[in-house]
Write a structure and sequence with these properties.
- This protein is an alpha+beta fold.
- About 35% of the residues lie in helices and about 20% in strands.
- It contains 16 helices and 18 strands.
- The strands form 6 sheets. Strands 1, 2, 3, 4 and 7 form a 5-stranded mixed sheet that branches. Strands 9-8-18-17-16 form a 5-stranded antiparallel sheet, sandwiched between helices.
- The longest helix has about 55 residues.
């Protein structure tokens, strides 16, 4: 029996293994190359993304991180207006998962500005674009929504609801200085106030990092609004106006128009043009509304007469024993003295009869020329676009000149009057008013309208009006207040309404070195028990001014000083007093 043994070919197996190892090595190298290439590609991509992100960040630093609108701050740097991010709520009707009939009542309950039926129309995409007539795919439901509302809407679980982050203008002081600041619309465009007036500056990319400083002092503004509001409520007035003006620079430290509004709650406009509010509450009565301001014009007339040489002596007397008859018209005093009055007495007792005689001697040319120098024939000089044009006489009859002398027959804004009084007490220089903070060195030179000596004389006379006359309720001890009352009947249907008054008190302090003019005005006030039923300026507006001055004086570095006052010793002896009051 033969046994055969087969021997494997070892050389061939070794060759096969060697070949497999080579193939494996090659595959590994390929994988390594692929991995390296992928790694390089990823590294390049990451590098590119890093560069792109850096560029994007640089772009954001250059533009996106800048506020879309510069801040507005008061003269001390306190924020009055700032832009923040806010969420707006909208819906994509074409993406709804829930039935519109179920969602509409829930939206109406959370956002009642629309009815359930209106929400149903929106959700069913029945809202169309006015331009092309096609259904609108995205519709705003609430702009600038509170976070609580966003959470409530989101809890409804409807994925078609959308929340868009948008810039919102925030006014942290709410109603404070609302008419000065104005507001922006939903697109961030300034619609009124300084927001509108400063639109180019506030949105300039090169400047919007820097806040814009207004002349307003938030503390002074708050004091003015507080006292005006109390007076408005007490006397059930239709409105109130107040101004605090720096007599040397023309800066407005406070400007108030009541009733107030909250610029955080954007009003709905029926007019599309910025700066055209349609409701009285949006109207700035300090710069837009014009009034006949009554006896507050008398110091201006007297100053004109002194400068013009019509009055050469304050001791000169004028007949006030009876009403003044001019043709069919009769000019009388509210509280007739029934005697001859000199100039200080005429101003202290607010005599229409004497003022009319002096205005008559001045004549049309000199009267009109002074009021033109005071810009009473133009809109008020200030940055705001909300300005009222004065009512300037079309025909200057003799009676027109006489009545304008004591504040009837011409209507101007309260700001016109405040600026005129600044010139009256600051040495005779009229300057335009401004709501921008400026250094005293930057103050405009202005225009001389009164001589320095006449200005000094009027300061003394205005001080006597407060010490001895109708402005007594504004006499704050140590603050050396001077001023003049003005109570004017409002024109209605071609005549004057005896029961509809504009009661104004315009003052300055301290009269030994005037720094500020303070104007307070109530529109259609009513008398109270403590005023004896009277609603005249001396009873209702002068007390408000006194309270304002007492509060703001220390804020502005003017403390009461019982040892200082303007020297009136040369004029006071001209004031006649009954024997019982003589010392």
């Amino acid at each position: 029996m033969t046994t055969l043994i087969a021997q494997p070919t070892r050389v061939r197996q070794a060759g096969t293994r060697q070949h497999g190892a080579v193939v494996a090595h090659q595959r590994l190298m390929i994988l390594m190359l692929l991995f390296i290439m992928a790694t390089v590609a990823i590294a390049l991509r990451i590098g590119w993304l890093s560069i792109d992100t850096a560029r994007h960040r640089m772009a954001q630093v250059a533009s996106g991180y800048l506020p879309p609108r510069a801040d507005l701050v008061d003269r001390n740097g306190e924020v009055l207006a700032r832009t923040i991010d806010a969420l707006s709520i909208g819906v994509h009707p074409s993406r709804l998962l829930n039935a519109p009939e179920e969602l509409a009542p829930k939206l109406a309950a959370l956002m009642p500005e629309h009815t359930e039926a209106e929400y149903l129309t929106i959700l069913k995409a029945h809202v169309v674009n006015k331009k092309d007539g096609k259904p609108v795919d995205f519709i705003y439901l609430r702009r600038r929504a509170l976070p609580e509302l966003v959470q409530q809407i989101n809890a409804l679980g409807e994925p078609a609801m959308d929340y868009i982050r948008e810039p919102q203008r925030l006014y942290p002081q709410t109603t404070l200085a609302g008419h000065v600041l104005g507001f922006t619309n939903f697109d961030g465009l300034g619609m009124a106030g300084m927001e509108h007036a400063l639109e180019p500056r506030l949105t300039d990319p090169a400047q919007r990092e820097k806040p814009v400083a207004l002349s307003i002092d938030m503390r002074v503004q708050a004091a003015l609004e507080s006292e005006l509001s109390a007076g408005l409520l007490k006397h059930r007035a239709r409105g109130a106006t107040g101004i605090v003006l720096d007599v040397q620079t023309g800066e407005v430290l406070a400007m108030a128009s009541l009733p107030v509004f909250n610029p955080n709650k954007i009003p709905v406009y029926k007019k599309s043009a910025p700066g055209e509010p349609i409701d009285a509450v949006w109207s700035n009565s300090a710069t837009q509304n014009v009034y006949e301001l009554g006896s507050t014009f008398k110091p201006i007339t007297f100053a004109n007469a002194i400068d013009s040489g019509v009055v050469t002596s304050l001791a000169k007397r004028y007949d006030a024993t009876q009403p003044l008859h001019v043709g069919p018209f009769k000019i009388h005093d509210d509280e007739p003295a029934h005697r001859w009055l000199n100039v200080p007495e005429a101003l202290v007792h607010s005599s229409n009869i004497v003022t009319a005689q002096i205005a008559d001697q001045l004549g049309k040319e000199r009267t009109a020329a002074l009021f033109q120098k005071l810009n009473f024939d133009k809109v008020p000089a200030i940055e705001l676009h909300e300005k009222g044009r004065p009512i300037w006489p079309k025909y200057w009859a003799r009676t027109t000149v006489m009545t304008i002398g004591y504040g009837h027959g011409m209507a101007v804004t309260p700001l016109h009057l405040a600026a005129a009084y600044a010139a009256l007490v600051n040495g005779g220089i009229w300057r335009p008013s401004t709501l921008m903070k400026i250094d005293s060195a930057q103050a405009p030179k202005g225009t001389r309208v009164f001589s320095a000596s006449t200005s000094l004389t009027l300061r003394k006379l205005l001080r006597l009006v407060v010490v001895e006359g109708t402005g007594g309720k504004a006499n704050i001890e140590g603050m050396r207040v001077g001023g003049k009352t003005g109570t004017a009947e409002k024109a209605s249907n071609g005549s004057y309404d005896h029961h509809s008054l504009v009661s104004t008190f315009v003052s300055a302090f301290p009269m030994d070195n005037p720094r500020y003019v303070v104007l307070t005005m109530l529109d259609e006030p009513h008398g109270t028990a403590d005023t004896g039923g009277y609603a005249t300026a001396g009873m209702v507006s002068a007390p408000i001014a006194g309270k304002v001055i007492a509060r703001i004086g220390p804020m502005l570095g003017i403390s009461p000083d019982m040892h200082k006052d303007i020297d009136v010793s040369d004029i006071q002896p001209l004031l006649w007093k009954p024997r019982s009051e003589r010392r």
